[in-house]
Write a structure and sequence with these properties.
By secondary structure, this protein is an alpha+beta fold. The chain has nine helices and 18 strands.
Length: about 350
């Protein structure tokens, strides 16, 4: 309250307040602007670092998968049944691998979206070793920075769980895929029971190669062993009754069957010319394989030849055809009409 007899001018008060605001702005403008700039600055991630972490995550999860299987401590449960009526088992191998893989990736890159086949609230404090494998360090340059918000990571902590429960461990893999703006750019497929890891960074390098030759008249087609649906008849309608159809577990395994494996690994894996799936499939199953094939000049598309968007919903409703070293478009032209959502 103003002293008695003194009347404050509203205009004077307003001017005084404006001067005060001006002084404060002058003193703190630099601080405010720098903090706003930092807030607006887009966080980026080096893809070489993300590739190295992806390899480490897949191998870390793989050790959990192997330990649980070797100890016969699966504690198998059922998540339900697929649309085709096949059981979807869940084991401690799935969960313990998920905990290691998911938390390692999120602890290292908290701003990146990570989607896993499994869901669990157990926190693991796994941290990246900061080591870049020698072959990646040699073949991939650093500085491949992309905005963190453009990245979606898909992990499959244990691919081929049904076969895992049956001790058909050659089909089992752990996988990590990195998509940028929906396009797969990093693929890692690790085989826990042999210790082999396949990796690729699209546009840069891979430790895998396409085989020197493939057959397409007719091709050997690899398909799902436990989620086959009516795929055998579909394949033979497309390529003839003499077509060899190989039933196998695990999407990761099926992609490796299209590639040239190291001599030490060839005895334990089938060789196919085309990988096909005619029912709904999840993106954590196929994204890593898509990146590997893309890096080697191959393709993985829907049955209609559409590119698969590896962002958003985890469901790919269009089936898939995967190949490398052959005319992918010619393969697609031989396929009969088919709607995966109706089968």
């Amino acid at each position: 309250m103003a002293p008695m007899g003194i009347r404050l001018s509203p205009l004077g008060v307003a001017v005084f307040c404006l001067l005060g605001v001006g002084v404060i702005y002058h003193l703190y403008a630099g601080v405010i602007s720098s903090r706003l700039a930092a807030f607006r600055q887009r966080r980026t991630v080096d893809l070489r670092d993300l590739l190295a972490v992806s390899v480490e995550a897949a191998e870390l999860g793989g050790r959990e998968v192997k330990t649980v299987r070797d100890d016969n401590s699966l504690k198998e449960k059922s998540k339900g049944k697929t649309k085709e009526g096949a059981n979807e088992p869940l084991t401690m191998g799935d969960l313990q691998s998920h905990r290691k893989m998911f938390n390692l990736l999120k602890n290292t890159f908290p701003e990146v979206t990570v989607n896993s086949e499994e869901h669990d609230n157990v926190v693991d404090h796994a941290t990246w070793s900061r080591e870049i494998p020698a072959d990646i360090l040699k073949n991939v340059k650093g500085g491949n920075d992309v905005p963190a918000e453009s990245i979606t990571v898909w992990i499959d902590p244990l691919d081929a769980t049904q076969e895992y429960t049956e001790n058909l461990v050659k089909y089992v893999t752990t996988m990590v895929c990195v998509a940028v703006d929906g396009k797969p750019v990093i693929g890692v497929i690790h085989q826990p029971f042999t210790g082999f890891t396949a990796w690729a960074l699209v546009g840069h390098r891979s430790n895998m190669h396409a085989r020197s030759s493939y057959s397409v008249n007719p091709p050997k087609v690899i398909v799902s062993r436990s989620h086959a649906g009516k795929v055998k008849g579909f394949v033979q309608d497309a390529f003839g009754n003499g077509t060899t159809v190989i039933g196998a577990g695990g999407a990761g395994y099926k992609v490796l069957s299209l590639l040239e494996m190291p001599l030490s690994e060839t005895a334990s894996i089938d060789q196919a010319d085309v990988y096909m799936h005619i029912t709904i499939i999840k993106k954590w199953d196929i994204c890593a394989g898509a990146a590997l094939l893309n890096a080697l000049g191959g393709q993985m598309t829907t049955l209609k030849g559409e590119d698969i968007d590896y962002s958003g919903t985890p469901v790919n409703k269009g089936g898939l055809v995967a190949s490398v070293g052959v005319d992918h478009k010619a393969l697609l032209e031989k396929l009969p009409n088919w709607d995966p959502e109706k089968h």
